[in-house]
Amino acid sequence: MAVFYESLSAAARGLPVTLAIWLSAVAAGMALGFLVGAARFFAPRLLSAPLVAVVEVVRGTPFLVQCFLLYFGGPFIGIDLSPPVAGFVALSVYGAAYFSEVFRAGFMAVPPAQLEAARLLGLSRTQTVLRIMLPVMALGVLPALANLAVILIKETAVLSIITVPEFTFRMQAVGSASFAVVETTLVLALGYWALVEATAWAARRVEKRIERALAA
Amino acid sequence: MSVLEVGALWRKVGQAEILRGIDLTVEAGEAIGIIGPSGSGKSSLLRCIAGLDPIASGRVLVEGKPATPGDGAIGMVFQHFGLWPHLTARENVALALKLVRKLPRREADAKADAALARVGLAAQAGRKPAGLSGGQQQRVAIARTLAMEPRVLLFDEPTAALDPELTTEVLDVIRDLARAGTTMLVVSHEMGFIAGLSTRVMFLDHGQVVQVAPPKDMFGPGAEPRVKGFLKTYLDRVAWAQG
């Protein structure tokens, strides 16, 4: 019974940290990913080549390794971040690499005639992106964005190894102190699963709303 | 001064020569029909005139000045309409009036409604593209282009994606515009329509002009052998259908 109460209190302290880092990293990652995706779609190859390299490196290495490098390696080059900030930065960059590909695919999926019409009618590139491309691609990219957000929730667990006091870190502490490893791990699984379901539900709501906006 | 002057226009894609030295001068109020086999360069010619595709050499002048996309000199209507699906018909037409012409909202909407009325869609102004038939969507696209008052209107196979009934309602709109004196170039495989609409018809093959002539010559005894051969397939099909 003591383990149960300790788990509850650990969850109550860890989940808000998980949520805060996850939500802010999703927002920052999406914004950064949008800019990178737009740059890769619109900029000449010479300019987008370094971005391609960064995206490939981030996608080509495990998130765990990136966290280690940033948190333990960062101080050697003058980047000395607290665990939560390092976690937020690492997760944002990791997410941005994937978000950028989703947005790039979204840009590519906008029918050419819609863009050529905008160009001939005199809309600027920025106006075309904001007023035409973003709304047109919204419905198409939403499932992929939600999918990524869900993956990022689960990746927050990795931040426990750089001592971010999030959900997994807290529950593992209870588990190793009480030897109730299975029970605490089950609570962990349930907690993440609930977060994922809530995210999927929210994404479906947004999807419905966009569908209504496109309906006749 | 002629409204549109195309001179020695070449377009290349890699080694392929898509257009090989096209010359065409269009006077105000003319309707030029452009016909020819698929791959002959008809759509490429329109896209080069509009500035959507780069040209290898030559010139495109609208009222004596080089035209650039977005300067309002040239309007274009596409085979696949290119309507913006998240905006109503009125918003589709009014968007460029607001963002480019900087008209106040009320004025832009009034102008959009007038353009929609001109293509017979006053009652559908509040509908999104998904709630319109293909013919209605293409008419909205025409209204969107008209509202910006271009000097020259280009139609790139405007009815190729439509069934015969919807084709007729779009062609009627284009014919009305031509009668009202709109300067236009129309690429189409609707031979009867091109014959009735055009002041002159241009026949393209392999990126070159085979013949430019008034419709009575192009669709009559005055046609070049290559043109006759092309049109024969159409006439044969009509004959075959009539048994």
Give a structural overview.
The complex is a heterodimer of chains A (216) and B (243). With 216 residues, chain A is mostly helical. Chain A has a single domain, classed as MetI-like fold, CATH 1.10.3720. Chain A contains 8 helices and no strands. Chain A has helices spanning 2-42, 45-60, 63-73, 83-109, 112-120, 125-155, 167-178, 181-214. Chain A is flat and about 70 Å long. The mean pLDDT of chain A is 89. Chain B has 8 helices and 10 strands. By secondary structure, chain B is an alpha/beta fold. The longest helix of chain B is centred in the C-terminal third of the chain and has 17 residues, at 225-241. In chain B, the strands form 2 sheets. Chain B has a 6-stranded mixed β-sheet with strand order 6-7-8-3-9-10, sandwiched between helices. Chain B has a 4-stranded antiparallel β-sheet with strand order 2-1-4-5, covered by helices on one side. Classes of the chains: A mainly alpha (216), B alpha/beta (243). Chain A binds chain B through residues 111, 113-114, 116-124, 127, 131-132, 135-136, 213-216, and chain B through 50-52, 69-72, 74-76, 78-86, 95-96, 99-100, 127-128, 130-132, 141, 144-145, 148.
